[in-house]
Every structure is written in C-alpha cells, then in structure tokens.
C-alpha cells in the first residue's frame, strides 16, 4: 500500500507526516546547516501536492496535517541561505500546491512550526501516582453508557502520544452500540465470563501502509500501545475505567476481527480495551507490580565494570 501510493501519485499522507517531521528536526538542530534535506525535499513537496489534490477531491480529510506541512515547508524554504537547483525545483512545486491548499476556515489560525516551550502548570508527581494507582483493570461496569464526548476527549489526549517520525500509524475503532459491542468484544480470547457486562469496546487498529520496509513492521504496535496507555489515563481522569484486553497473534482470531471490522489487508489489530463506568461494589484484582529494583538498572552494560 505504501509503495503503491508513492509510485502512483496517490499521496501517502504518512510519507508527508514523516518527511515534514524530519524537516522539523533539522530546523531545531544546532548549528543549523545552510543547506539540508536535499535527499528528500522533492519527495516531500510531491507528496504535499498529491495530498492537497486528494483533499480537494474529498479523498482525504486531514486539513490539519496539510496546514502543518505548509507552515513547516515555508519555514524550511525561508531558512535555506544557499541556492540549489533541487531546492528551487521543490520550492516551485510547493508554491503551486500551496495555492490550492485548504485555508484557515478549515484549520483555524494557529502556528504549527518549531517553537520554544514556556513553563506550564502541570500535575504533581503525587497526583500522577495517585491516578496510576487508581487505574485498575476493571471488568465489572455499572451499565451506564459512556458519553462520546468523554471518549473523544480521551482520544484527543491519546493522540498527543509520541510516535516514530510522527506517523501515528493507528486509529481507534470504537463500538458503543450494544449489539456491535458484544459482537466485537467476544472475538479476543480474554473476555469470556464478563463480555456480557461490557458497555463499550475499543479496538486499536494499526496500519502498515505507513512503512516501506519490513524492518518497521513492529512500529504500529509500539506507537499504538503508547497511545493506549494515555487513553486509559485520560478515561480514568474522567471517571471511566478500562481493561486492556490481550490480542493473541492467532490466524483465526486475526481473520475474524478483520472480517468483522472490514480491515484492509495492510491493517492489523494491536490490542483492545473494554471501557465503562466501574461498578464500585465489585472487586478488582490487586495485581502486584514489580518493585523498583526489578524495573530499572543504571549504567549496566556488557564489559562496563559497573554493578
């Protein structure tokens, strides 16, 4: 899928997100080079132009990525102090495409370029620890439906999780219709005995269309799991509990989920979450965690001589 999009001009938006993030990283380097990104700037602006055209045709809807790309590319071209034919050709492609890009009415007025952070009032460590201790794997819910605005708020926070080159190769497939929820929640192997009690079920779906090499096949699982933990905390902070449901790598189970969700051949389930308001009368497992000394080590490397 990745290669087909790139070579047929369908504007793989993951290529655009990765390359623009590479430009961001280059722009914050010290010292910044006078001339950089020659190896991928043409691919970046070509992908930008393709994605702008697809947006205009209604084939993609992510105007935020397009506006972020436009702003970063403008900063990039303004920062190049040496003339180079590759840069000038890329600049011409970009300027033409930017004329047709979505305007402020789609994305709002906001700077989306590298910036210096300002101090902010943050939760204390003790507050975060309390949230983590409060979050338990809850399997018994009180039956109330979870409002979608609460779920969406949690998804927004989860979307701020780090991902490799900012590709974010995952999405949240959410089922709050009772019949569909039961159908999907019954597919994993970890829900028998309590599936009937689940009011909302989430499948985190990863896409391999973000990558051109087999070596990156594990990234959707890593990035999706980072987002899943943020999602759990965001839900818990709003009074909604969750239970992470293991996703076994079994051919039959993968095929059943793919059929039920209508997944593309390049999409994979990463993990699942049952969510809902906890029934406070019911018990949860204590689940003793590893002690500090088992979780970390300092400077322990082969041949380092450190204990």
Mean pLDDT: 93
Through-space gap between termini:
48 Å
Structural class: alpha+beta
Helix content: 40-55%
Number of strands: 4
- Unreliable spans are none
Identify the strand order in the major beta sheet: 1-2-4-3
The total count of helices amounts to 12
* Topology pattern, helix = H, strand = E: HHHHHHHHEHEHEHEH
Offer a quick outline of the entry:
The chain is α+β, with helices and mostly antiparallel strands and 307 residues long. It has helices at residues 2-7, 13-27, 41-56, 63-79, 85-98, 104-107, 125-134, 148-158, 178-185, 219-236, 251-261, 292-295, and strands spanning 170-175, 200-207, 241-245, 267-276.
Question: What are its keywords?
Answer:
single chain, 307 residues, alpha+beta, 4-stranded antiparallel sheet, 12 helices, 44% helix, globular
Q: In words, what does this structure look like?
A:
Helix content is 44%, strand content 9%. The chain is of the alpha+beta class. The model has no long low-confidence stretch (mean pLDDT 93).
Write the layout of secondary structure elements.
Layout (H helix, E strand, L loop, with lengths): L1 H6 L5 H15 L13 H16 L6 H17 L5 H14 L5 H4 L17 H10 L13 H11 L11 E6 L2 H8 L14 E8 L11 H18 L4 E5 L5 H11 L5 E10 L15 H4 L12
């Amino acid at each position: 899928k990745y290669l087909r999009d790139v070579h047929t001009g369908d504007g793989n938006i993951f290529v655009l997100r990765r390359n623009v993030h590479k430009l961001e990283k280059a722009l914050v380097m010290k010292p910044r080079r006078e001339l950089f990104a020659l190896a991928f700037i043409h691919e970046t602006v070509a992908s930008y132009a393709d994605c702008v055209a697809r947006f205009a045709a209604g084939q993609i809807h992510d105007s935020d990525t397009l506006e972020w790309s436009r702003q970063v590319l403008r900063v990039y071209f303004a920062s190049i102090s040496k003339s180079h034919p590759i840069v000038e050709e890329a600049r011409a492609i970009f300027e033409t495409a930017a004329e047709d890009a979505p305007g402020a009415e789609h994305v709002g007025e906001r700077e989306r370029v590298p910036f210096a952070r300002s101090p902010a009032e943050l939760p204390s460590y003790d507050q975060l620890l309390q949230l983590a201790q409060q979050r338990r794997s809850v399997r018994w819910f009180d039956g109330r439906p979870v409002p979608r605005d609460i779920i969406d708020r949690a998804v927004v926070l989860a979307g701020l999780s780090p991902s490799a080159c900012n590709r974010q190769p995952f999405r949240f497939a959410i089922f709050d219709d009772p019949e569909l929820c039961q159908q999907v929640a019954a597919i994993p192997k970890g829900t028998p005995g309590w599936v009937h009690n689940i009011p909302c079920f989430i499948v985190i779906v990863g896409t391999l269309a973000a990558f051109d090499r087999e070596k990156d096949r594990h990234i959707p699982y890593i990035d999706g799991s980072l987002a899943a933990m943020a999602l759990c905390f965001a839900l818990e902070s709003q009074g909604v509990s969750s239970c992470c449901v293991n996703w076994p790598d079994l051919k039959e189970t993968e095929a059943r989920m793919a059929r039920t969700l209508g997944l593309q051949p390049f999409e994979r389930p990463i993990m699942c979450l049952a969510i809902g308001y906890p029934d406070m009368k019911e018990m949860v497992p204590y689940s003793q965690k590893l002690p500090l000394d088992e979780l970390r080590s300092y400077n322990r490397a082969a041949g380092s001589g450190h204990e």
